[in-house]
Every structure is written in structure tokens, then in C-alpha cells.
Amino acid sequence: MSDLLSRRLALLGERANLALLTQCLHGIERECLRVDAHGQLALTPHPAALGSALTHPQITTDYSESLLEFITPAEPDPAATLADLEQIHRFAYSKLDGEYLWSPSMPCPLPEEERIPIARYGDSHIGQLKYVYRKGLALRYGKTMQCIAGIHYNFSLPEALWPLLQQAEGNTQSPRDYQSARYIALIRNFRRYSWLLMYLFGASPTLDAGFLRGRPHQLKQLDEHTLYLPYATSLRMSDLGYQSSAQAGLTPCYNDLASYTHSLHQAVSTPYPAYAEIGTKQNGEWLQLNTNILQIENEYYSNIRPKRVTYSGERPIQALMARGVQYVEARCLDINPFLPLGIDLTEARFLDAFLLFCTLQDSPELAGTECRDCTDNFLKVVKEGRRPGLHLQRHGEPVELQAWAHQLLDSIQQLATLLDNSHGGDSHTQALAAQRAKVDDPALTPSAQVLASLQEHGESFTEFALRQSQAHAEYFRSQPLSSTEQAAFEESVRQSLAEQAELERAPVSDFDTFVAAYQASILTLAV
Length: 527
Fold this sequence. Notes:
Layout: H1 3-13, E1 25-35, E2 59-61, E3 67-71, H2 78-95, E4 100-101, H3 125-141, E5 151-156, H4 161-169, H5 175-193, H6 195-201, E6 206-208, E7 220-223, E8 226-228, H7 245-248, H8 257-267, H9 273-278, E9 281-282, E10 285-286, E11 304-307, H10 316-323, E12 327-333, H11 345-360, H12 370-384, E13 391-394, E14 397-400, H13 401-423, H14 427-440, H15 446-457, H16 461-477, H17 483-505, H18 511-523
Helix pairs in contact: 5-11, 6-12, 11-13, 11-14, 13-14
């Protein structure tokens, strides 16, 4: 353990400061496909009974009409966050007519690309903008890749923690810049160590054979309808996912916030030749928002993002540049198909200890070959993380995954103990012990359990996923919301539909002018 980490642990462990760690905030976004009773993609529109996908604060859609996204509020206790997520699932199931929420991250058997429905958000300009952005995604990456689902874990430390650390370290930056720098340092460490999360929580070693649409691949055939890799943890996060020659050269630097926002600004304002050749319109119909490397910032696919809550009409880069980093969004987590919510409290408790470790541990700038090693380690673990004797690269030297994982868990133990001292009990230590057992025995990992279940039941990927989806539906429907809770959701649905109707009534300029103004809001930024 480094001297800096020891000093920070000692400071936060003091009686006067210990309660601070009970004020971390946690939010979860869970994506999931709607499927029919046969496990095929539901081609029905987003259910009106769930409210407006544009304005409902907790139930929206991601890429497709069929791809639901559930969003919790940020809570100090992840148990409360998961309770919020469970309520959203129960309400959704009260409105799904003969449909199911698909249990894993990798999609169900998909129809032809042209039949996958892009999400619609109504006739307001912002609703149209979201639709055209998704048309651009289809054009650039295809619709199939957009049907992959995941879990995003949002995490922030209390605002009062940063001045405490800053003063103790004699740092002379402005408070805003210090806080941003510490979050960017967290992200650098996340890049160094997130391979561990893929080993522990990766849950997508298999996929439906039709997913690759005939593209060449190195996967093995498990059965007629299922492809897999024997030691894979997360094919979702492998190079089978988003392939983009445009984004290949885009490597936002996480050495400071300014370099990160600058590289994203360049990407959203620099034309890419292949997209420019297509243009933004065909026969007067919008094809994509612009011909730049990225249409908007969110098109950049990364495992973790620095975030700041935006004001109405404000873009993510603008918010970060104006007010700094407020929280991080960890985006690499698979949906665990054995869990009704796709995630549980044990995983959340470990994630808190892991993210706190990334925050407080030394985090030198990523220089030389380390940046590439981080990427290579991550990709190696998602494709063969359970391979016996697998080695990764650390400081330019080979190191066995199992040995490095145990060393990291030994360090994270200090953070789990600190969190337990802060909250009372031993839930973080217990969560860490569960992960240590997976390092000792790869058969305990979700990815190994998925393969074991398929082989035990003689099932294809789709048969397994549908069985799990049906079991989860029964779980949620067997314990409906109370009448008070149901009424609160019904009111939120009514309110969201009213808000969308109000947006669509508002007098506005034409859509072309709106898009031009949206684009100009970035181009005029001084970076």
C-alpha cells in the first residue's frame, strides 16, 4: 500500500471524518430489451402505459423502441438504489402485455436490421433530434450492435470530502479544479484495474449465432444457435462490440479534464470523410445530425465517463468545462442473467470499495506504453479471463492475473474495512470475500456459471436467456407494488405525457435551424 493511500485512509478514518463516507451517492441505469413470449425482439412501440420516453425521469428507451432503460435517483445507500430499481421493474411488469425483459446483456435473436425499430420521442425538436441521432448511429455502426444492453453504475463522493483531502495535501488548485483532477485520477486507475471487474462480473461468454450477421469471427460453436469462447468473461465488452474506424483514432486523454474535453470537442466538430461522403440528408430527409467523427459527445463509447448534471439545453462538454466533474459513470458492467435486477447488493458494495480505492490510490499520469497495456489487459480478460495461468502486463512486465487480482483485493480490503467502519457492520468486507472466492475458483464467476447452466440444461443461449427472463417476470409479478406505489408511478406517467405534449405545443423555429443552433453551441466553445 502506498504512503499516499495510507495517509488518505488515516485521514478519512478519523472519528470526525468517518461519517463522510456514508454520503457517497449511487445511481443505476439498467438497459434491457423487450421480447415476446418466444424470446424474439418485441416490435411493438414503447408502451404508452410506461409514459413518455422523452420526459419520464425513470423509464426511457436507449437506442431502440424495444430497448428500455430504467434510471434510479442517486441515493446514499446502494440498498436504497436497488430498491428504487426493483420498484421500476415491478411497475414495468404491471404494464407489459405478454412481453418479457430480456435477462442477459447480449441480445435475443434479432430480425433483419431494417426491422429493428429506432426509438421515437415525438414531434418536438428535441424529440426529433434524439431520433435523427439514432438514425446516425444505425448508419455508422449498424442497428445490431445498438441492441446490446448493460448496467451503468453512477458514483460520487461527498462534496465535503474534497476540501478535506486538498487541505491535508497542501494542494493550491481551485476547489473545482482539485475535485475534477481527483475524479480524473479515479478514471485513470479505473482504466488500470477495470479488467478485474470484467473477471469478477463479466456475464456474457455466449451469444446468439445470428448476432454476427455472417461477419468473420474467432468464436467457437457451442451448438447450432450459440457461439462462445471457453474462457471469455464478457463478449459484450470485446472487439465484437462497437467497431468504428472513425473512433479508432479517438483516444481522449485522462491526464486532466482539459485534455479530455478538448479531444471530445475536436471529435464533435471535425468532419470524418466517410460520413461527409454520405451527408446529413437524402431527398430532404435527415440521415445523421452531422458528418463529424462524433455526432454528439455520448457517441464516444468508453468504459467510464466523467459526468456533471446538465442544465436544460446544456451539452455535457459545456457542463464539464463550466463546473467541473461531479460524478463518474462506470459503463462496463454486464447484466447478470441470474439476478432479477441484473445486479445485486454484494456487487454494489464491492464496486463502492473498488471505486474508492481508485480514488484514493496513487494515480500517476498514463504515459508511454501503459495506456496501451490498460486496453490490452482489458481486452485479454474479456475474451479469455478464466484461462488458467493467464498473464497480463503491469509496468511492462508479465504478471499472472490471479496473483495480481489477489494483490488488488488485499489493497481494496483496506477500503472495505473503512466503509464498514463508516456504515457499521461488515457488508463491504463480506462482498470482498465473495470476490476473493471467484479469484480462487473461476467456476464461481458469472461467466462460468452461464456456460455451466447451458451445458447442464442442454440449452442454447436463447433458451437459457428466455428461461431466466420468465423466472424474473414471475419474481416481479408475484410481489406487485402497493397501491400507493402504483399510484405514484401512474401519476409520473401522466405527468411525463403532459410534459411531452407541452413541448410539442410550444412555438419553435424549423428543425434545421434548431439543429444548426445545437451544433453551434459546441463550435463556439473556447477550449
